[in-house]
Amino acid sequence: MFLKQLNLINFRNYGKLDLQFDERPTIFVGNNAAGKSNLLEAVYFLSTTKSGRVDEETELIKQGENAALVTGLIQETKLEINMQMIDEKLHKRVKVNGVPRRVVDYIGNLPVVLFSPSDINMVTGSPSLRRWHLDLSLAQVDSHYKKSLTLYEQVLVSRNRVLKRIREGQGKVDELDYWTNELIKYAKVVSDARIAFLESMNNFESPLGKFIFEYKQSLLNKERLAEYNGREVAAAVTLIGPHRDDFVLNLNNRNLAYFGSRGEQRTATLAFKLATLEYMALSLGKRPILLLDDVFSELDANHRAHVVEVVSRQQTIIATVELENLPKSFLNSSRILRVEEGVVRL
Ligand code: ATP
Ligand code: MG
């Protein structure tokens, strides 16, 4: 993948920005709050239509404005996301070469992998955060997965509604059958893809360490559902299935959520992201763009050297507060752009 050009209008702290990229790694350097992460986020947003942060999506539009535009050029394809506030609600419209598309058909045009400092939360945070990382990677390479997951979530809502009606004495247990069968069908597609993804990730050897991403599947089938049925009706929610899946990040058989040092947790997150990059590259037959936010600051010299080596394999865009941590030879072969309060200087 190669992103040639990025254009922003009213995105975060940028009023108007037109950027060209070349074959070299791009390094955005600047003080805190200059707008470096916002630039990586803009590329991530163009790729996934998602912010990549937990804030309200309306915050993507520059303060005081009510519309924003992000466009990018890859090879001969123009990607475009238009955001507009209408009645205090954010409306997003996506286009490929000027033709409107549904988001589900749009994703996949610009595969990216983003590493950002807050990703360390995936080690210690909630299972939903880990599923979010997993789903975003899989959705970019596997449209069948993406569609099945969406359908799974829709069926889940319907099935929970029926459970609630049964609890209230308004529905019969056999009304569940249709939704149960549908749920099992889509659950299988989702779990199979997650199994394959984590297996492939674990086969990938990384100089960062022997990390194992251990799938904790909440298996969904008829037998297990029968065991849970009474409790499900009482709770009026579906208690098992991919929406309750999790995975654990292990190093030398230790669960890093409990036993990891901060450095280990950070390295595990980076290892997860770099393994994701290889998985996506293998599935797509082309390498995604790599976005690295403040990756070097807490890494030791060996790990830093490994990251520099990975950077050379695909288009990579880096954000950093200072250049001191980076090897001279790497700086000499990179394009360094200074970011100051919403302005990028060559
Ligand atoms: P750091 O080195 O601390 O990571 P950074 O260069 O990555 O800094 P960004 O996270 O890109 O900085 O944020 C830059 C600034 O953008 C912040 O001051 C933030 O308040 C501002 N900002 C965020 N959203 C908006 C918005 N919608 N409108 C205007 N400014 C915004
Ligand atoms: Mg930042």
TrEMBL record:
It comes from the Bacteria. Its main location: cytoplasm. SUPFAM superfamilies: P-loop containing nucleoside triphosphate hydrolases. ATP binds at G30, N31, N32, A33, A34, G35, K36, S37. GO terms for biological process: DNA replication; DNA synthesis involved in DNA repair; double-strand break repair; SOS response. It is found in: Cytoplasm. It holds the Pfam family SMC_N. InterPro entries: DNA-binding_RecF, DNA-binding_RecF_CS, P-loop_NTPase, RecF/RecN/SMC_N, RecF_2. The keyword Nucleotide-binding applies. GO terms for molecular function: ATP binding; single-stranded DNA binding. Gene3D superfamilies: P-loop containing nucleotide triphosphate hydrolases, RecF/RecN/SMC, N-terminal domain. PROSITE patterns: RECF_2 (PS00618). HAMAP family: RecF. Belongs to the RecF family. The RecF protein is involved in DNA metabolism; it is required for DNA replication and normal SOS inducibility. RecF binds preferentially to single-stranded, linear DNA. It also seems to bind ATP. NCBIfam families: recf. This is DNA replication and repair protein RecF. The lineage of its organism: Bacteria, Candidatus Daviesiibacteriota.
